[in-house]
Specification:
proton-transporting ATPase activity, rotational mechanism; alpha/beta; 102 residues; ion transport; 22% strand; transport; ATPase_V1_fsu_sf; Rossmann fold
């Protein structure tokens, strides 16, 4: 299985290409939907890396894949501008997921 990047900027795409990850740069909801469908249909792709900007702008597309499919796994990554998450994101996630305060 391989990873595939769907990015909204060339810098993230270039960095991932240097790491050996193939992908595409897109800028619209229509193209995001097309690329997601194409990536899901490709059985060699096990992980789709997607920039956080797309997750914030089009959550209905991303959440549909996350909730209704086992593969590929979608992993949201920050772009060159940094993450849109709070500094204690991981701790809050664990607290919410298992109800354990760390």
């Amino acid at each position: 299985m391989r990873m595939y990047l769907i990015s909204d900027n060339v810098d993230t795409y270039t960095g991932m290409r240097l790491a050996g990850v193939d992908g595409v740069v897109i800028h619209s909801k229509k193209h995001l939907k097309e690329q997601l469908d194409k990536s899901i249909a490709d059985k060699t792709i096990g992980v789709i890396l997607i920039t956080e900007k797309f997750s914030r702008e089009f959550p209905e597309l991303i959440d549909d894949v996350k909730l209704n499919r086992r593969l590929p796994l979608i992993v949201e990554i920050p772009d060159r501008h940094g993450t849109g998450r709070k500094p204690n994101f991981i701790t809050d996630y664990v607290n919410e997921a298992i109800g354990l305060k760390l």
